[in-house]
């Protein structure tokens, strides 16, 4: 009975939270960035996002899901142990990328038996490593393959996956695995890749990649992730913005509450080729690579913080996003102000929430921007109206102080709160978190759980 009540309570919480998702991606290549930019699952704040997506796994020649990095499985366990700290956190494994320049999805979706092999392997792998779900990151169905054929095959894959997830949950009496996808933002790509209403019915949420709208591959400066079109746009560029992209998804029948708006924690750079420095100025290639991300064409937000201290910063008011120039370098990026504009637009459009690409490009350690750890994602969380995160000094409580000191010198784990048995302490990395049992239940140290008095 107690278990049932707890389960109901959890369901209720999930129900409320489902209208407000903050999904954050992390990448397994961020561990190779130098010095203080090195990022692993240990750098994740367990209370920052509602979901964390681990990118990236691949598909092997036997059509099985498989890891890429030598330490992926070690990182899975670090990531999924964060749910001991925040039981509401959901984690998903993302599969995608390319093998010899081609998406591994192309061969896998081609035959019913190879799809079945992939689906079997995915369920078993996700369960073994304690993930809550799978994220499909095929960029894109119909690109390099056969457009209309792969569009239909992607629908088949999504439909079969969701059916198999349903069966797995029933057969094993477990919570059903979540299914999501990263999807294109540009109209011609969307039209080639997706049968929108068919896939939307089977996906729990859809991460629209509303960034990379413009970049150094173009001969004039443009913004990475503008909210609206600008007056220098013409032709197909009229649709290279968030408003046009999400409108297209909605017009094709995607339910707004399943669409998540993509928030980049990076900007895109250009090398200016004349004296002009505004939007649409002539350019020929990217600015220098950042010292930490070491790839010409984009800078992580922490690199941007360094750049903007000496650069001239401007605001593109038509598009509600900032840009910055210094010498011949031009940067279109996002900051707290543009995030706020986008959240406002997202709320007015009734979207299901936000997804962030990526945690590891925000100033996750707070070393660069003088605004504490995760200045962008924390701002996003706050703008979306989430309750404050549990902190070392808990919100109103009947327990006596000094609670914040409780975990100093104690090993990670759960502890009874002698002053109030309806609550309990959790120690994690020296921080104290105070949790409350479901109404009517008290904490029992014997099972490290809440149960009837
Ligand atoms: C946003 O998109 C809608 C639908 O395509 C369009 O009617 C509207 O003019 C756009 N708004 C702006 C400011 O571009």
UniProtKB/TrEMBL annotation:
InterPro entries: Chitin-bd_dom, Chitin-bd_dom_sf, Chitinase_II/V-like_cat, Chitinase_insertion_sf, GH, Glyco_hydro18_cat, Glycosyl_Hydrlase_18. Its EC number is 3.2.1.14. Keywords: Carbohydrate metabolism, Chitin degradation, Chitin-binding, Disulfide bond, Polysaccharide degradation, Signal. One of its GO terms (biological process) is chitin catabolic process. It comes from the Eukaryota. It catalyses: Random endo-hydrolysis of N-acetyl-beta-D-glucosaminide (1->4)-beta-linkages in chitin and chitodextrins. SMART domains: Glyco_18. GO terms for molecular function: chitin binding; endochitinase activity. Residues 1-19 form the signal peptide. Residues 404-453 form the Chitin-binding type-2 domain. Residues 20-387 form the GH18 domain. GO terms for cellular component: extracellular region. Belongs to the glycosyl hydrolase 18 family. Chitinase class II subfamily. This is chitinase. It comes from Dicentrarchus labrax. The lineage of its organism: Eukaryota, Metazoa, Chordata, Craniata, Vertebrata. The gene is chia.1.
């Amino acid at each position: 009975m107690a278990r049932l009540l707890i389960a109901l309570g959890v369901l209720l919480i999930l129900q409320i939270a489902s209208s407000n998702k903050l999904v954050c991606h992390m990448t397994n290549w961020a561990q190779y960035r130098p010095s203080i930019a090195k990022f692993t699952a240990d750098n994740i704040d367990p209370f920052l996002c509602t979901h964390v997506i681990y990118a990236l796994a691949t598909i092997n020649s036997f059509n099985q899901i498989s890891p890429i990095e030598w330490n992926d499985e070690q990182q899975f366990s670090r990531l999924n142990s964060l749910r001991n700290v925040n039981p509401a956190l959901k984690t998903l494994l993302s599969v995608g990328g390319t093998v010899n320049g081609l998406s591994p999805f192309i061969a896998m979706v081609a035959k019913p038996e190879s799809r079945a092999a992939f689906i079997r392997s995915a369920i078993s792998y996700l369960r073994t490593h304690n993930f809550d779900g799978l994220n499909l990151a095929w960029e894109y169905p119909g690109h390099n393959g056969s457009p209309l054929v792969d569009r239909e095959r992607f629908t088949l894959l999504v439909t079969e996956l969701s059916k198999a997830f349903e069966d797995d949950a029933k057969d094993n009496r477990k919570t059903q695995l979540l299914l999501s996808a990263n999807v294109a933002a540009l109209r011609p790509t969307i039209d080639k890749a997706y049968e929108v209403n068919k896939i939307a019915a089977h996906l729990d949420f859809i991460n629209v990649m509303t960034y990379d709208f413009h970049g150094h591959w173009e001969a004039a400066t443009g913004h990475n992730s503008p909210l609206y079109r600008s007056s220098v746009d013409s032709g197909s560029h009229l649709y290279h913005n968030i408003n046009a992209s999400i409108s297209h998804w909605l017009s094709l029948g995607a339910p707004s509450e399943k669409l998540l708006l993509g928030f980049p924690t990076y900007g895109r750079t250009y090398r200016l080729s004349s004296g002009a420095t505004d939007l649409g100025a002539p350019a020929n290639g990217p600015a220098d690579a950042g010292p930490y991300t070491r790839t010409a064409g984009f800078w992580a937000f922490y690199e941007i913080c360094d750049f903007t201290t000496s650069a001239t910063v401007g605001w593109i008011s038509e598009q509600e996003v900032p840009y910055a120039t210094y010498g011949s370098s031009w940067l279109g990026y996002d900051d707290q102000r543009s995030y706020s504009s986008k959240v406002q637009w997202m709320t007015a459009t009734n979207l299901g929430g936000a997804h962030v690409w990526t945690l590891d490009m925000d100033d996750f350690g707070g070393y660069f921007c003088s605004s504490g750890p995760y200045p962008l994602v924390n701002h996003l969380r706050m703008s979306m109206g989430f309750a404050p995160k549990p902190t070392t000094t808990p919100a109103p409580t009947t327990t006596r102080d000094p609670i914040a000191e409780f975990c100093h010198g104690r090993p990670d784990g759960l502890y009874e709160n002698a002053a109030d048995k309806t609550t309990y302490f959790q120690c994690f990395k020296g921080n104290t978190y105070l949790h409350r049992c479901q109404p009517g239940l008290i904490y029992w140290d014997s099972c490290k759980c809440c149960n009837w008095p």
